[in-house]
C-alpha cells in the first residue's frame, strides 16, 4: 500500500491540535490543497519523496506532519514552522496520528498524577 494516500475515499482529513501545534497526516489531497495542482513541483521535496518512494513498513503507518503553528503566547516565535514530519515524541517513534494522540494523553495523565501526589 501507498504510504501517502492518493485519495481520502470520502473521509474527512484527520488532524490533532495540541498546545497550538496542528498535526495531520500527509496525503496527496493535503499536498494538492496546500500547493495546488502543481504540488509535485512546489511542495517541499522532503514531503514529495514520501509520495514517490514511500511504502508502508508497519501496519497502520502514516506520515504525521506538523502542518502549522497557531499564534498564541505559548508559540511566540514558532508561528513560521510548518510542514515538518514528526518522527519521534519523547524519544518514541510516532506510528500514526492516533498513536501521537495516545502518547500525548498518556503524558498528560502522568503529569496529572505527579501533580496530585
List the helices and strands and how they pair.
Layout: E1 15-18, E2 21-25, H1 28-35, H2 39-42, H3 45-53, E3 64-69, E4 84-85, E5 88-89, E6 92-93, H4 97-116
Instruction: Write the element-wise H/E pattern from the N-terminal end onward.
Output: EEHHHEEEEH
Percentage of residues in helical conformation: 25-40%
How far apart are the first and last residues' alpha carbons, in Å?
47 Å
Strand order of the largest sheet: 1-2-3-4
Rg, alpha carbons: 16 Å
Helical stretch count?
Answer: 4
Q: Extract low-pLDDT stretches.
A: none
Strand content: 15-25%
Helix-strand makeup class: alpha+beta
Shape descriptor: globular
Q: On the 0-100 scale, what is the average pLDDT?
A: 93
- Assembly state of the chains shown: single chain
Can you tell me about this structure?
There is one protein chain. By secondary structure, the chain is an alpha+beta fold. Helix content is 35%, strand content 18%. It contains 4 helices and 6 strands. The protein has helices at 28-35, 39-42, 45-53, 97-116, and strands spanning 15-18, 21-25, 64-69, 84-85, 88-89, 92-93. The strands form 2 sheets. It has a 4-stranded antiparallel sheet, covered by helices on one side. A two-stranded antiparallel sheet has the order 5-6.
Amino acid at each position: 500500500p501507498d504510504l501517502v494516500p492518493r485519495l481520502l475515499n470520502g473521509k474527512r482529513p484527520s488532524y490533532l491540535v495540541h498546545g497550538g501545534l496542528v498535526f495531520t497526516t500527509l496525503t496527496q489531497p493535503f499536498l494538492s490543497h496546500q500547493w495546488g495542482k502543481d504540488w509535485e513541483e512546489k511542495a517541499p521535496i522532503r514531503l514529495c519523496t514520501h509520495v514517490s518512494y514511500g511504502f508502508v513498513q508497519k501496519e497502520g503507518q502514516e506520515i504525521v506532519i506538523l502542518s502549522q503553528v497557531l499564534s498564541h503566547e505559548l508559540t511566540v516565535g514558532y508561528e513560521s514552522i510548518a510542514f515538518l514530519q514528526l518522527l519521534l515524541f519523547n524519544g518514541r517513534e510516532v506510528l500514526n496520528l492516533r498513536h501521537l494522540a495516545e502518547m500525548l494523553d498518556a503524558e498528560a495523565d502522568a503529569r496529572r498524577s505527579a501533580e496530585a501526589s
